[in-house]
Structures are given as structure tokens and as C-alpha cells.
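Quick one, probably user error.
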């Protein structure tokens, strides 16, 4: 049977997502609140997405971080319909993440369970008035950074998120590391996540469960950000699975 090129492109993100060792991803998320998906995108896909930042079309808003106390740099929220590649990635990754999110909520005694497919979950968001798309593209230049934060946009929050680095460390920029902090009753620590161009990091949006020293489960608060870019320009795509008001 002949397969048309367009159909191959349509199925590639799902095929790539299915190929990851999701047991190891889940173990890493349980232990550190983040996990790397290596080479989720190839170099051409990264360059094409980064080049989109200069366009005036396809976005619903542009945010200059310094105006809001978010750090330095800027980002744009995509409008619906999303770029096809990002839409396919969002749909391909969600079914692997929903079971992890559901298990975490059960451990934290949160009375919310997520449906197995993204469209049903987005329908839940729309019914609550969360209709604006949240996937975004970020641009940092020399001296820019992103303050530690959580991406919470409304009543319905999916507890995992994906960021994809579109630029090559060392070649396109220096500094600008992805950073996560963990805060719990026993203290705080930071984790610097090393990424190459095309790598994605899955990470905790808000809270995650962790083993308590005396047994049981404790709630750990997580935040993420980007350290200061020392040189060059850095682009990243963020895939958030809940929409906003």
C-alpha cells in the first residue's frame, strides 16, 4: 500500500511519542518531577518553529516578561488552530501523561481524574470557560531569564507540561538552563535540566507526590524557570495541556 507523504508527517509525532520508554519517564517524574524525551523534534523542525516567532500571524497575544515581573524576554501564545506539528504533538503526548496524572491525584487525594484523550479534556476546559489555547513559543536574548513560576490558568489544570528546546546550546546561545525547584516541609532544592536542541522535558506544573520519611505521601510544590542567557538567542516551545480563560 502506498502511503502519501502527508500521512507520514501526520503520524510521525505519535510514532515518536510511542517509542519512548514511558516506564522510565514515569520513574523520573516520580523521583525528580521532570523527565527528558530526547530528540523529540529534529533540527529542521526546530528551525522551522523558531523561525515562526517573527511572524505576526498565528498568535493570540505577545507577552513582554519585564512588564509583568516575569523576568526578561518575551513569548507568544499560539491561536487556534495550532500549527499542525504542535497540535499533533499535544495529542500524541497527552495519552501517555494522563495515567501518570491520574495516579498522582489518587496519591494526593485530589478528586480529579483526567480522560484518556486530549479532546475530551479540552471539552471539560471549554465547559468551564477555559477556551484560549496555552501552547506558546518563548524567545530569550542576552541577559534574559524567566522567573520561577507555575503555569496555572483556571479551574482545570493538567499537572504535567512539556517544553521543547529549539536552539542548540553552545552554538546558538550560552547559559539559559532549564531550572526546577522543589519545596516541601523538609526544605528546598534546585535541579538544572540539561537539554540539547530537539529535546523535550516533561515536568510538574504545580505539585507532585513524594514519599514521606515516615511512610505515606507528602505534597511537593514545584516551580520552573530559565537561568540568565549569557550569549546568543534561545527559543523554546511550551506545550500546556489545559486551556485558559
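Nope, works fine. Designed sequence:
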Amino acid at each position: 500500500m502506498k502511503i502519501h507523504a502527508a500521512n507520514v508527517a501526520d503520524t510521525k509525532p505519535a510514532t515518536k511519542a510511542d517509542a519512548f520508554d514511558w516506564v522510565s519517564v514515569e520513574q523520573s517524574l516520580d523521583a525528580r518531577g521532570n523527565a527528558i524525551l530526547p530528540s523529540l523534534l529534529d533540527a529542521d523542525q526546530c528551525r522551522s518553529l523558531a523561525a515562526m516567532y517573527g511572524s505576526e500571524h498565528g498568535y493570540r497575544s505577545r507577552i513582554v516578561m519585564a512588564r509583568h515581573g516575569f523576568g526578561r524576554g518575551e513569548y507568544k501564545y499560539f491561536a487556534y488552530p495550532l500549527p499542525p506539528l504542535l497540535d499533533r504533538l499535544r495529542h500524541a503526548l497527552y495519552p501517555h501523561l494522563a495515567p501518570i496524572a491520574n495516579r498522582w491525584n489518587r496519591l494526593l487525594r485530589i478528586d480529579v481524574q483526567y480522560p484518556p484523550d486530549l479532546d475530551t479534556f479540552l471539552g471539560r476546559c471549554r465547559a468551564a470557560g477555559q477556551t484560549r489555547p496555552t501552547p506558546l513559543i518563548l524567545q530569550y536574548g542576552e541577559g534574559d531569564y524567566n522567573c520561577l513560576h507555575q503555569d496555572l490558568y483556571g479551574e482545570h489544570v493538567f499537572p504535567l507540561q512539556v517544553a521543547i528546546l529549539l536552539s542548540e546550546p553552545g552554538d546558538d546561545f550560552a547559559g539559559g538552563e532549564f531550572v526546577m525547584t522543589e519545596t516541601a516541609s523538609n526544605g528546598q532544592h534546585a535541579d538544572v535540566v540539561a537539554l540539547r536542541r530537539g529535546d523535550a522535558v516533561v515536568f510538574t506544573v504545580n505539585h507532585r507526590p513524594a514519599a514521606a520519611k515516615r511512610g505515606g505521601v507528602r505534597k511537593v510544590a514545584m516551580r520552573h524557570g530559565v537561568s540568565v542567557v549569557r550569549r546568543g538567542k534561545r527559543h523554546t516551545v511550551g506545550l500546556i495541556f489545559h486551556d485558559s480563560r
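Confidence is low (pLDDT under 50) at residues 1-10.
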